[in-house]
Write a structure and sequence with these properties.
By secondary structure, the protein is of the alpha+beta class. It contains 22 helices and 24 strands. The protein is globular and about 95 Å long.
């Protein structure tokens, strides 16, 4: 036995604040502890002193000064570094969070504030029935957007009441382990590919899901657009610098919400961060497809991504079609037992499609024969001090290079010039109405980018050459299995653009219940009158009017993916040795240095040529080494360098995914590539 005097020399008092709802019970407790007491023992000691009979299993210690959770219950206070001056907060790990989804709907649900964000997003996606959670993350709204919202609320005469979908009864959000979710591949499809309606039988199978049939409709169907006045009040980036601000708020995937200053009932944005939508399947991805469609739609309406007038009208036509389809949804949706697909039959049908291999003769042909293109095209070279020079040449496309000759007869000799397209930027330069089919090539050279334009004669020629250029830029040849689907995709997009005036379709735009200003960005509502816009949207609508609902959404997503700026996230950086700021565009396969004043690309670096990258955390500098002794270093000015580091590692991680794998992710590899050592 030791005396009380000796005991006092080894022990000390620790102040712990308990987060509970019992007003009659005190919240602050002084505990007599020693350094060798482990965290689990401290919990037991505290609960015994509180004397409130309740479930404490979701509670853990939050160390306010250090901004960290004490989750390793076998660690001692000495090992954690906890001393008498520490202030510990005993609180729940799962708390309420408001999430603004891509479709601008807000959901309220319980989320783990102690798990790293990567795991928290995975749990959120299980609740919302979104597969491939690794493509999404949480984003803090930009300060400019918040300022505009506050100004709008201030000017509003009526108090703003937000329509919030409450999903707090979810088993996953209550801290329990979630079931397989609605998207399990062994179950019946959640999406009818023909009518585009969620299959109600699936809802009843998963009774533990918070997504009732009504809630599933809210997330899986697009809803009527907001008014032009509401659109005008929303934040719209005007410059590249404004677009860079949109990407500054991504949360660190390797740290918890609480560690990043997020409080209970705060609002965050749930967004697709990585633009590589893997294994998109209408049978299982009702909510996922709709949310991708909505993110694309709002990016176009708010001009977060640039598009031509012709493209804007196509997007508007697809949106208008959705609205007209939805207005009849009560008649077309049939949730009766008669329309439901037998679960076992559906699972077997999908298995048959999954196991069905490609044509073996085609595979053999891909291996043994590399196709080439040869045709008459016109070459356009911009001159700085004179007009463009446009000359016809005989072009030959083989492997990943384009060579051109004076004429077809001289093709056996040496070419005038050979252009290696590996690593180049390929930008469409098309106006279907004006019969202009151009391909803009920005080819990396030692001092920047060499700009070359190819002009094609017609749609078919353009589709073949454009697809070849796109694949060559990624280091692939026309023998690759993705060549023919790429040609088909380009042709289908051109077909949507190629509409003709139909007197019947546009004779009376007012007869159609459509507010055209809801479907285009503000730039076009200022340029055209309402009747003119309605007529032009209805013209474009003729080419898409027969599409099923799901196909129209997928076409919209494909058209979005075809835009030159698709998938680029912008950051303002200062390159080592440079005296001015530049913009860095981060995409799924490359980095682009862009002139901040003109918006012109200066240099492109492909991830496929990257040897290694690292971060100097002391000076917050990212350094990257590429093949051929090319190295770059930059500091990020518009955001923390950890965000760019995570983007690069995240895209490399996503490139390792395979359809042969099951849907479980190597979380350890993700954190190894994105976490960093701060």
């Amino acid at each position: 036995m030791i005396s009380s005097r000796e005991y006092g020399s080894y022990s000390w008092e620790l102040l712990v604040t308990v987060d509970h709802q019992h007003e009659e019970v005190q919240k602050e407790f002084l505990l007599q502890v020693t350094g060798d007491l482990h965290i689990g023992g401290l919990m037991l000691k505290l609960v015994e002193q509180i004397k409130i009979p309740q479930d404490w299993s979701d509670y853990a210690f939050w160390w306010e000064q250090k901004k960290c959770w004490l989750l390793k219950t076998h660690w001692t206070l000495d090992k954690c570094g906890v001393q008498a001056d520490a202030k510990l907060f005993f609180t729940t790990q799962h708390k309420m969070l408001r999430l603004r989804l891509p479709n601008m709907k807000t959901v309220r649900l319980k989320v783990s504030f102690s798990s790293v964000v990567f795991k928290a997003v995975s749990d959120i996606c299980k609740i919302l029935n979104i597969r491939r959670s690794e493509e999404l993350s949480l984003l803090k709204q930009s300060e400019d957007a918040l300022k505009k919202k506050k100004k709008k609320d201030k000017n509003s005469k009526e108090p703003v009441t937000e329509d919030i979908l409450n999903l707090c009864d979810s088993p996953v959000s209550s801290g329990l382990s979630g079931g397989p979710g609605l998207y399990s591949k062994t179950m019946t499809p959640t999406y009818d590919p023909l009518s585009g309606t969620p299959a109600s039988s699936t809802i009843t199978w998963f009774s533990d899901s918070p997504l009732t049939e009504q809630n599933c409709n809210i997330l899986a169907f697009s809803h009527p657009n907001c008014s032009p006045e509401t659109l005008a009040e929303m934040y719209q980036p005007r410059t590249l610098a404004d677009k860079a601000k949109l990407n500054a708020g991504w949360l660190d995937s390797s740290r918890s919400l609480m560690e990043q200053g997020i409080l209970e009932d705060d609002q965050l944005l749930l967004r697709f961060k990585y633009y590589t939508f893997f294994d998109l399947n209408p049978k299982y991805d009702a909510v996922r497809i709709n949310q991708i469609y909505e993110q694309a739609r709002w990016a176009i309406l708010l001009e977060e991504i640039d598009c031509t007038e012709e493209e804007m009208l196509i997007f508007a036509a697809l949106q208008a079609y959705h609205v007209s389809k939805l207005s009849l949804s009560s008649e077309t949706q049939d949730f009766t037992c008669e329309s439901e697909v037998d679960e076992v039959e559906a699972a077997l049908s999908n298995l048959e499609v999954t196991l069905e291999g490609g044509n073996t003769s085609n595979i053999l042909e891909d291996i043994t024969d590399i196709p080439k293109l040869a045709d008459n095209l016109r070459l356009v070279r911009p001159r700085k001090l004179s007009l463009k020079t446009i000359k016809p040449y005989w072009f030959v496309f083989k492997d990943t290079s384009v060579s051109y000759f004076k004429n077809k007869e001289s093709a056996q000799g040496e070419p005038i010039e050979k252009l290696n397209l590996k690593g180049c930027e390929v930008v469409p330069d098309v106006n279907v109405a004006a019969k202009k089919f151009g391909i803009k090539l920005l080819i990396p050279v030692a001092d920047g980018m060499n700009e070359v334009y190819l002009r094609c004669e017609n749609e078919n020629q353009y589709a073949r050459w454009m697809a070849a250029c796109v694949l060559a830029s990624k280091g692939k040849t026309m023998a690759d299995s993705s060549y023919h689907p790429e040609v088909h995709k380009i042709l289908s997009f051109l077909k949507m653009k190629n509409w003709t005036m139909s007197p019947q379709a546009v004779s009376d735009p007012e007869s159609i219940d459509m507010n055209p200003e809801c479907f285009v960005s503000l730039r076009y509502t200022k340029k055209y009158k309402s009747k003119q816009l309605a007529a032009r949207i209805l013209e474009a609508h003729q080419n898409v009017s027969q599409m099923p609902l799901v196909e129209a959404k997928l076409r919209f997503i494909q058209a979005w993916q075809s835009l030159p700026e698709f998938g680029l996230s912008y950051y303002i950086v200062r390159f080592k040795g440079s005296k001015k700021d530049d913009v860095l565009g981060v995409s799924y396969n490359r980095l682009i240095r862009i002139d901040i004043a003109t918006g012109d690309p200066i240099t492109t670096w492909r991830f496929s040529n990257m040897k290694q990258w690292n971060v100097n955390w002391e000076i917050r500098q990212v350094a990257i080494e590429f093949d051929q002794n090319v190295s770059i270093a930059f500091t990020c000015l518009s955001a923390d360098c950890k965000i760019i580091h995570e983007y690069i590692g995240g895209y490399i991680f996503l490139s390792t995914r395979s359809k042969d794998q099951n849907e479980t992710l190597d979380e350890e590899l993700f954190h190894k590539l994105t976490g960093g050592q701060e």
